[in-house]
UniProtKB/TrEMBL annotation:
Coiled coil: none annotated. SUPFAM superfamilies: Aldolase. The keyword Hydrolase does not apply. This is 3-deoxy-7-phosphoheptulonate synthase. Residues 95-349 form the DAHP synthetase I/KDSA domain. It comes from Acidithiobacillus ferrooxidans (Thiobacillus ferrooxidans). It comes from the Bacteria. GO terms for molecular function: transferase activity. PANTHER family: PHOSPHO-2-DEHYDRO-3-DEOXYHEPTONATE ALDOLASE, PROTEIN AROA(G). It holds the Pfam family DAHP_synth_1. Keywords: Transferase.
Length: 372
């Protein structure tokens, strides 16, 4: 059960202390307090765990300071949607809104290589009105002899360049909790010229200790990629790990599943699950068409598969797109074959715009079917 406290009932207030005293007296119940910094005020929620069936909603709502009580009907207590749950979805980070009702594009380099390439990429993004990007500094590679990313060494100049070109958020994968500390330190040292969304890659979706460590900080939001060989439910539970530790600023990423049934695509595209994740949880949903498809192959219509699957995800309501571009894919150190060219950026964005417009129209059409 979740108790949503009245606005401005904070941990210092006597009402709050009174409430905690009451909750401590309930047998078979323990609880966890979660505070969310909203635009104007701190919102507090208390998660009751254990034998909550014995508790009546009316009784809990009558407790001092409690605005609403919600019976949790699903496993994903914090990120899930529950009956009578009118809590909003999404969050704002560094001036960018992430929610189930909008769309952000994160085009950029799979892996940071040279300052020239990073700058060319960022300039193209700025020229096309973009404020978000992807830049991999830590790369999980199949071979131990392959390029592992520039790591901490590239962070200061990547952040400075991102600030120079007006980037508000960079999606950046981390493989270890020390990488998170390195990113936070580098942001601090460079004076926060940009923001970072920590990315947990598909190989680490069930690295529970990493999830807990990332969940314990609330400063940086997280993009959690779905595990490529586990069920959707298992991956959604992985997201819940982040929230249960305190960080509810989580975007859930679909990036295709590992099976040869998707051949010749690199992974089996799973964007049919965009509405499923939105229905089960309050997380914004990201699609990664580049790692799903893995090539620049095009259909006889001249449209690349990467474009096609992006449109499919956006038409189904996706909220974020993570997509690989590179100024010179032949020299890219990671994933060159799937990278789009900078000159293809306006085309890509226009294709996304068309797909999003179609989604908005489809929503209106669905609304019109509902009798008033
Ligand atoms: C990536 O986005 O660079 C990446 C490695 O993705 P994934 O974890 O989905 O393979
Ligand atoms: Mn990649």
């Amino acid at each position: 059960m979740i108790l949503i406290l009245e606005a401005n009932v904070d941990e210092q207030s006597p009402i709050f202390q009174q409430l905690l005293t009451h909750l401590r007296g309930l047998s078979g119940i323990h609880f966890r307090v979660h505070q969310e910094q909203g635009a104007e005020q701190v919102l507090s929620e208390i998660y009751l765990i254990g034998d909550t069936k014995q508790l009546r909603i009316e009784d809990m709502e009558a407790l001092p300071g409690v605005g609403r009580a919600i019976r949790v009907s699903r496993e994903y207590r914090m990120l899930g949607r529950h009956n009578d749950d009118q809590r909003g979805n999404g969050f704002e980070y560094n001036g960018v809104r992430f929610g189930q009702d909008n769309l952000n594009v994160f085009a950029g380099l799979c892996a940071v290589d040279t300052p020239e390439h990073v700058e060319q990429m960022l300039r193209a993004l700025q020229e096309n009105g973009q404020v978000c990007t992807r830049m991999g500094a830590y790369k999980p590679r199949t071979s131990p002899y392959a390029f592992q990313g520039h790591g901490k060494a590239c962070l200061p100049w990547v952040f400075d360049l991102a600030g120079k070109y007006g980037m508000r958020v960079i999606a950046m994968e981390i493989l270890h909790e020390s990488h998170m500390d390195e990113i936070r330190e580098a942001l601090e040292r460079t004076g926060h010229p940009t923001g970072v969304m920590l990315q947990i890659g598909t190989r680490n979706t069930q690295n529970f200790e990493l999830l807990k460590a990332v969940g314990r900080q609330q400063e940086l939001p997280v993009l959690l990629k779905r595990g490529f060989g586990i069920t959707l439910e298992e991956s959604l539970n992985a997201a819940e790990y982040l929230a249960s530790e305190g960080n509810t600023k989580v975007v859930f990423g679909l990036r295709g599943m590992k099976t040869n049934l998707g051949d010749p695509h690199r992974n089996f595209v799973d964007f049919a699950q965009v509405p499923v994740v939105k229905r089960l949880t309050r997380m914004p949903v990201c699609i990664d068409p580049s790692h799903s498809v893995g090539s620049r192959d095009a259909g006889p219509d001249g449209i690349m598969d990467v474009f096609h699957v992006t449109a499919q995800g956006v038409v189904a309501g996706a909220n974020m797109i993570l997509v690989d571009f590179h100024p010179d894919p032949a020299t890219a150190l990671v994933d060159g074959p799937q990278a789009l060219l900078l000159k293809e950026l306006p085309w890509f964005l226009e294709d996304v715009r068309l797909a999003r417009e179609t989604y908005e129209e489809r929503k209106l059409l669905a609304t019109a079917q509902t009798p008033i």
